[in-house]
Every structure is written in C-alpha cells, then in structure tokens.
Amino acid sequence: MIGRLNHVAIAVPDLEAAAAQYRDTLGAEVGAPQDEPDHGVTVVFITLPNTKVELLYPLGENSPIAGFLEKNPSGGIHHMCYEVEDIRAAAAKLTASGARVLGDGEPKIGAHGKPVLFLHPKDFTGTLIELEEV
Ligand code: CO
User: Fold this and answer.
1) DSSP annotation of 25
2) Looking at the annotation, which residues are catalytic?
3) Ligand 1 centroid from CA 117, angstroms
4) I need a surface site. Which of 13, 31, 87, 96 has the fewest CB within 10 A?
C-alpha cells in the first residue's frame, strides 16, 4: 500500500542553524523557510536525490511540535512520511486493522498542498507516520 518515502521530518530548536548545517556542512539543496500557520510550524525543505528532509520549527502558540522539543531539546526525528495513491482507502484499511488515525480522521491539506493523515506512533513501533496522497 505505501509507496515512496516522501520525507523525513526533523524537529529542530534552531531553524537557521539546522538549515545552515544541511546547506554548508552536508552540502544539500536547502529551501527558504515557509510558515505553515495551519500546522503551527515553520518548515525548511531539503531536497535530496531520492527523498526530502523537512526541518520543523514551532510557529505560534500551541504548536504541535513544542512539546516534542521540550522532551527532545536538541531536536530529533519527528515523523516519516510515506506516499499513498488513495488516502481515504488507506485510512479505511488501517482503521479496520485497528490502527488509530490522529485527529478527526479526515485528511488535511499538508505542507505540499496534498492531503495528509497522521497515524498514532504507538500503533507503528513508536514512529509517527504521515501518509500523503500523491
Ligand atoms: Co511531514
């Protein structure tokens, strides 16, 4: 059911420093910061030959990654995003198998303008999984 790894998201305590490290030390193609107020994050996309890395930094109050950074002050891997062809079919199959879809279960428009869903990390070996319809 899942296809390509779309991105790995890393929550960072200092977006400038993390972007500079990927650009200057690791030599990656690093984009400009984008505010995503609907998701409570500022995002920097890093394009690699086979996938992307998404640096996440809290935006506004009640950011969903503020608590994560409190527990992981140096930052850390926040989620993995896998591509699916039909997000509603994927959600129905996962729910039927007992997995929990976060929120109200309805796909939301993600940072790439495509429908996304998140799956409970306790149902997937401790990893928060994002599904993105492509
Ligand atoms: Co993501």
Assistant:
1) I
2) 130
3) 10
4) 96
Give tens-digit pLDDT for 45-94: 999 999 999 999 999 988 989 999 999 999 999 999 999 999 999 999 99
pTM of the model: 0.92
- At 31-49, the pLDDT tens digits run 999 999 888 999 999 999 9
Ligand 1 centroid distance, CA of 122 (Å): 18
**3-class secondary structure per residue, the chain:** CCCCEEEEEEECCCHHHHHHHHHHHCCCEECCCEEEHHHCEEEEEEECCCCEEEEEEECCCCCCCHHHHHHCCCCEEEEEEEEECCHHHHHHHHHHCCCCECCCCCCEECCCCCEEEEECHHHCCCCCEEEEEC
Query: Which residues span the domain enclosing 12?
Result: 5-133
